[in-house]
């Protein structure tokens, strides 16, 4: 398949995940992955045949025994019982509550589950993966509630809502037991959605139920999508910061490369270089490489001059998180894993362990939440400074040149909004990974809470996209006010700031009206929504980068 992501050819990257999840890039299964899967599948199939012949069979967790604290008490006698066990597990675990997860999160979880099963250690048939791939390709998206996962033993409850749609009871079932799914914009039963898409629902084989449920797929999906958005957000935050620094006639000394190389952190060095490029060509910046500052002392407030020292650590942290998440996307995370062609000296090729424990993902999501909250913390302080006539170096209070001072509130309230959003993030960024509540008769006595961490990280990124959108909007207003104050044209601005300003003024708010210079109060939320959409989509970043190309 041309331009498809092929499972088993190479590890799935974060960019691959986003391409399949958001852009509809096809996902396919390689011949190598099929061959790898057949090895463990054949081992379980041989065990099932042994059971059906009536031969004594040892109890093997999740294949012919119960789960959790019920494991090992009694071995089932036939493969039919093992198949029934798989379906009963799915039914019993579909116990989530809360709002419906965004479809992109569910699709991402399906991709990650497929990548995990394609490793070949889970003893599932290729038909199981082909069903997931068909659902992704034809747009069947299970309805999955947001609450239920502890991040160990994997994301059991949300994954059960996915498996409920794609599997069926061998002996027949009520339609209500098929779960729910979205198909072509409509919510319907799992039976109806799969039938409308022309996809057969599966009778799961031994172990296949647990293989679908016992993994970190939803926790990883939440965190992976939050990370993808955070990477765009960070780069856009640098653009917004540069616009504010320029509007406030900041000092270039804070971004001289020698200063940052003296400290040595890669993210800080890279961020400073980005700010220099974004400010290059501006006549409003005082001092810098090869130019002595004119005003003394050449020091801005921390929210301006310490941008590399704050966003640099964010950049390094996001790179670290990407390494964890890309590893986890490709990880075999169910239990037990089957090493049918390994483990010399052992007849039992099923190994029980804890790869479903999502502590890696929980840490990654918590680190992401903390780092992105800091993007908002420092941005909000620049918004405050832009609005304050005692701090903004001569711009009007609240960034509005009213005919009568006090008649217009200008950008007073967007700063309030930013403060509310940042405060929310400070609460959400409390680490979920430090929490644990034992379950399953204390068999599962330590859990990661990774799915909660991932949900919180997604919300934090959304909050801070709004904060950075507010800064872009206010910095654009401030730049125009600065030009008016100095009687200068746009040619004195850096090309990057000018490009973003041009983008805004050529765009419409969500109510259809132009995002023009604010000369008197208007209803602001349509503008805020539109600019936040431009931050999320990468349009603001793209405009700045195109100007520097």
Task: Describe this structure as you would to a colleague.
By secondary structure, the protein is mainly α. Strands 4-6-7 form a 3-stranded antiparallel β-sheet. A two-stranded parallel ribbon has the order 1-2. The protein is built from 19 helices and 9 strands. 52% of the residues are buried. The chain has 2 domains: 5-215, Fumarase C, Chain B, domain 1 (Orthogonal Bundle); 224-333 and 357-548, Up-down Bundle (Fumarase C, Chain A, domain 2). The chain starts with a strand and ends with a helix.
What's the gist of this structure?
The chain has about 550 residues and is mainly α. About 55% of the residues lie in helices and about 5% in strands.
Gap between N and C termini: 33 Å
Counting DSSP H or I runs of 4 or more residues, the number of helices is 19
Rounded mean pLDDT is 96
Uncertain stretches of 5 or more adjacent residues: none
User: Strand order of the main beta sheet, please?
Assistant: 4-6-7
Computed CA radius of gyration, to the nearest angstrom: 27 Å
Biggest β-sheet strands, sense, barrel:
3 strands, antiparallel
Note the run of SSEs as H and E: EHEHHEHHEEHEEHHHHHHHEEHHHHHH
Query: Can you identify the CATH class of the largest domain?
Result: Mainly Alpha
Helix content: 40-55%
- What multimeric state do the chains show? single chain
What amount of the residues lies in strands?
under 5%
Give the overall silhouette. elongated
What is the CATH topology classification name of the largest domain?
A: Fumarase C, Chain A, domain 2
CATH superfamily of the largest domain: Fumarase/aspartase (Central domain)
CATH architecture of the largest domain: Up-down Bundle
Q: Structurally, how many domains make up the residues?
A: 2
Structural class: mainly alpha
Number of strands: 9
